[in-house]
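From the shared-data thread, chain only:
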Amino acid sequence: MTLVPVDNAASVQDIDELATTFSRLMRTFNRARQQFLARARHNVEWSSQLLISAVVNDGPLRAGALAEIVQSDASTVSRQVAQLVKDGYLERRADPHDGRASLLVATAQGHELHRDHMQVRNEHFRRMLDQWSERDVRRFSALLHRFTDDFLNSKKDWFDEDAEPVREAATASQRES
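Structure, as tokens:
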């Protein structure tokens, strides 16, 4: 993580605007995601699509590794995987390094679902960003990537008992300004 010199730090108002915009984006995203999936040819729930995408992109995977990737508990992922296997999107194969364990692999039907999902997603973004320059898209992508990494890295501090409480930190920074 790059530390910003104090004289270049974002103001409280800038942080508030960013947090408000981010919250608005998340609410909009939550409302739109079901509509987004409905446009795909396959009727698969959002969480199932995430599992299939993870297996296609990072597989073959053990169920525990899949649960870590999608940041969900193993029992929930296990139930969802069982349904995806039953529906023909994933299959279990013996782990060549440990015959007692199995690996999850996307089937041809799973790969097709993933391709359809990516096509719908990318077309949506293409239309949405049609008026943006290539430079703007690349810059936003780089900043969003950085923001996402920082968001994920800071998440562990949200519930850390040793971390400075948010209200106290905000009050202290306001006193300093």
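The chain has a mean pLDDT of 84.
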